[in-house]
Amino acid sequence: MTTNTRLRKTMLTLPPEVAEAFAGIRDTETRNDYIIALRAGGWTLQSIAEASQITRERVRQIATGPDTGSDIADLPQPTPPSVTVKPKREYNEPRPEVLKRLLELQPLAQQVRSDSPKYREEGEEYTKLLYDSHVRDNVPIYRLAKRLGITHGAIRFRLVRYQYMVPKKNGTSKVYTPVKEINRVDLPS
Questions:
Q1: 130 vs 128: CA distance, rounded Å
Q2: Average pLDDT over the chain, rounded to an integer
Q3: Hey, where are the domains in the chain?
Q4: DSSP output for 90-145
Q5: How far is CA 173 from CA 79, 135, 150, 179, in A?
Q6: pLDDT above 90 coverage of the chain, percent
Q7: Distance in angstroms (rounded) separating the CA atoms of residues 169 and 18
Q8: 75 to each of 6, 30, 78, 89, how far by Cα in Å?
Q9: Nearest alpha-carbon partner for 21 in 7, 5, 38, 6
Q10: What does DSSP assign to residue 188?
Q11: 130 with 158: CB under 8 angstroms?
């Protein structure tokens, strides 16, 4: 993973030589062009206002105006400090064929009730695919939930209920009661 940098946007203070340069400027056009240059360089309105002894609002008004072309080459134009930006974390996605099968099985697996044998095999396959995708393919449960349009709690509940996972607290739960063994269906390997 590579890291990027961006200009810091808060708590900026221009160096003292910039304030001295503002104190030495005698005409308004040069001052305005200097403000425009500093603003274009990434400095905040507040930092420029503090150095130039004018209000932030006036700095904003000047910075949006046109550049008059005054010679400001001999004035200091420091670069604002930058901060390191951590890249966005990338998560594994479920394989397309697995996601497609999960979406096919989902409506049927959600219809499995208590001791009924109806859709039991689809429910078992759905749960096994969820588990395999999470454990073997390293797909976070949150990512699976997002792709399936359900909550991560629903996936956790199903995985515990079908005994693919153990509840986090002491390994037991009054809420997550496992499916009875007589109601389980053996899937072909």
A1: 5
A2: 87
A3: 4-85, 96-183
A4: P-----HHHHHHHHHHHHHHTT--TT--TTHHHHHHHHHHHHHHHHTS---HHHHH
A5: 58, 22, 22, 13
A6: 52
A7: 60
A8: 24, 10, 10, 42
A9: 38
A10: P
A11: yes
The 3-state DSSP class for residue 4 equals strand
Give the pLDDT of residue 63. Answer: 92
DSSP 30-72: HHHHHHHHHHHTT--HHHHHHHHTS-HHHHHHHHTS-------
108-131 pLDDT per residue, tens: 998 988 777 788 889 999 999 999
In degrees and rounded to multiples of 5, residue 103 shows phi and psi of -65, -30
Distance of CA 31 to the CA centre of its chain: 41
For the chain, the straight-line distance linking the first and the last C-alpha, in angstroms and rounded, comes to 37
Longest dimension (CA), the chain: 92
pTM over 0.70: no
**Residues 12, 44 contacting (CB under 8 angstroms):** yes
Amino acid at site 28: T
Higher-scoring residue by pLDDT: 159, 189 = 159
